[in-house]
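Chapter summary example.
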Amino acid sequence: PASDHARQQVSLADTLQTFKQFFEKPQIVVALLFILLYRLPEALLVKICPLFLLDSPAHGGLGLSTGDVGLVQGTIGVIGLTLGGILGGVLAADCGGLKRWLWPMVLSITLPDTVYIALAYFQPEGLTLLSVAVFIEQFGYGLGFTAYMLYLMYFARGPLSTAHYAFCTGFMALGMMLPGMVAGYLQEAVGYLNFFIIATLLCILTFWVASLVKIEDDFGEEPRR
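The structure predicted for these 225 residues follows.
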């Protein structure tokens, strides 16, 4: 931002003041809840989905080869993720801003998680249906993730926005790391199908934290020329 400027020295007092001002921001508790919980279902899924695709049908997986997983997740999924993210940015910038698109983006990052319940239940053979399902889920994630990143930029605004945005990304990483630490234990305890059901039910938390945030009407929208 324009307020950034070079500094020759940063004292300990400056650093502590930066932290202090971050935790004194309005709605700090809501912001931390949003940052940590908005992607909770995805934080669980991202650790287990590759294992689900590789594991044998006898153990509840789909029995794909490593190359097939690379194609489905590393190519088709990435295309879906990229297109979803691009569309999310265009919608926010040109069609009303973050507040208008928050709930459609919340729906897009949560409802497609159900495709993994269907995949675990029916265990389809071949790559066609699987590729479509992964594309839909990743496209929805890319679209819904736009709201997440825009909110981080919204919350970090102010004279120390670069440092505060860095703090937000640190909590963002924590929000992925903590669920990932227990994902494997949970899957081993309940199996793939029940794991995906639990992850989908946890989307309730995504809806909850989204309902708490307050956003200015035009934030994220590009000014009309």
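To summarize the output: The chain has nine helices and no strands.
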